[in-house]
Amino acid sequence: MNATPQLSIVVPVFDEEGNIAALVQEIVAALRGRLVFEIVIVDDASRDGTAAILAALKAQVPELRPLRHARNAGQSAAIHTGVRAARAAWIATLDGDGQNDPADLPGLLAARDAAAPDVKLFAGWRVQRRDTASKRWASKLANGIRRRMLRDDTPDTGCGIKLFERAVFLALPRFDHMHRYLPALFQREGWKTVSVPVNHRPRGAGVSKYGNLQRAWVGLADLRGVAWLIRRNRRADVEEI
Asked: How far apart are CA 208 and CA 133, in angstroms?
């Protein structure tokens, strides 16, 4: 691709050989002909056939730019790698398991185009979750605690489909699992965020890489850290003399 893309879709993947080809084709179907885009998929050192599938897809899909970590670094690191490599000013993210629907991307773009210029993040909101009952319950509890602690007025920060401005993201403090707290972090920088209802689907193949207890344990530590970042933040309006 020679033209500078108007949108970069960043997808972190780890052991998603059963989902990635269909996801790429769905992204192409949702966006080709609407705008110039690129698909930056970051393989976080998968142990299955994900890398081979991406290599084959690259020959078929000119918009695709697959990258690969030499060792597993986690989802937030993979997203950061993709955003840093992206060429567009705006980024859309999707999870690699196929549960996010690429058909929602035009809706997020429409919400951006209709919003005020100080809205820099459009977060997907899974109104009807397609997960197990235990996972839905754990997510509801975690979201309630997070909203009370961070006051980010966001019903669903765990949804992988988001649209945001690249420059703002790259200016955020970087830490593991930061992708779960993007609304609060964007608001910390003085920007507004909006939640947009999106579709949610059952996982097509493979298994989740996180258990409920693992999410809860890590989430408690992260919440305290993000709350500290918000309390310690000092911003100053600047004017030219």
From this structure: 14
Q: What is the pTM of this model?
A: 0.87
Rounded CA-CA distance 125/155 in Å is 7
Per residue in 30-81, pLDDT (tens digit) is 999 999 999 999 999 999 999 999 999 999 999 999 999 999 999 999 999 9
AA identity, residue 124? G
What is the rounded distance in angstroms from the CA atom of residue 18 to the CA atom of residue 204? 7
Ordered domains of the chain (ranges, CATH): 7-231 (3.90.550.10)
String of DSSP letters for 58-88: HHH-TTEEEEE-SS---HHHHHHHHHHH--S
Of 125, 78, 105, 98, residue with least CA distance to 201: 98
